[in-house]
Design goal:
Strand 1 and strand 2 form a beta hairpin. The two termini are 24 Å apart. By secondary structure, this protein is mainly alpha-helical. The protein has seven helices and two strands. Strands 1-2 form a two-stranded antiparallel sheet. The N terminus and C terminus are likely disordered. Helix 1 crosses helix 3 and helix 3 crosses helix 4.
Length: 157
């Protein structure tokens, strides 16, 4: 939440906050929109200002996102107090949930690896045409819009 008197605030404009936090200006605005971050306030010329605490919070968000945590998982962790014993249990629970997502994703990736190896083994380059490309065309023709799903697996947001 902005402080009551923005004209007296000292902070970093978004470009400097981006440099100091390692989070792009675009992502900073996105995190604000998602209510993961509330900037310090605005300067006299209406630029957003970010405090050292905001920079820490941006680094925290960046770290969690690098661990492939969803925005909801990050939001949960941001809402916890490191000095509250009950929040420690909530943090463990949040990480246990994330570990479940990671394990499910690993299983998906292992299945994908198996499928890709099988596809790769269809062609050694000695035939008159490529069995890999042939198989991909066959798989594409066999798909229906309902069964196709997304072409690229996306991580949960």
């Amino acid at each position: 939440m902005p402080h009551s008197n923005p004209s007296t605030l000292r902070g970093y404009q978004i470009g400097e906050a981006a440099k100091r936090s390692g989070v792009s200006a675009v992502n900073i605005r996105f995190y604000e929109k998602e209510q993961l971050l509330s900037p310090l306030g605005r300067s006299d010329n209406s630029y957003r200002l970010y405090s050292e605490g905001d920079l820490h919070q941006l680094r925290f968000i960046r770290l969690c996102r690098a661990m492939d945590m969803s925005l909801d998982e990050v939001r949960t962790l941001l809402g916890l107090d490191l000095n509250n014993k009950a929040d420690c249990a909530a943090a463990r629970e949040a990480l246990d949930g994330h570990l479940g997502h990671v394990r499910a994703r690993l299983a998906e990736l292992k299945a994908l690896e198996k499928d890709l190896k099988a596809l790769r083994n269809r062609c050694d380059g000695s035939d008159t045409h490529c069995r890999i490309i042939e198989a991909l065309h066959e798989l594409a023709d066999a798909q229906t819009p309902a069964a196709a799903g997304p072409a690229v697996r996306k991580r949960h947001v």
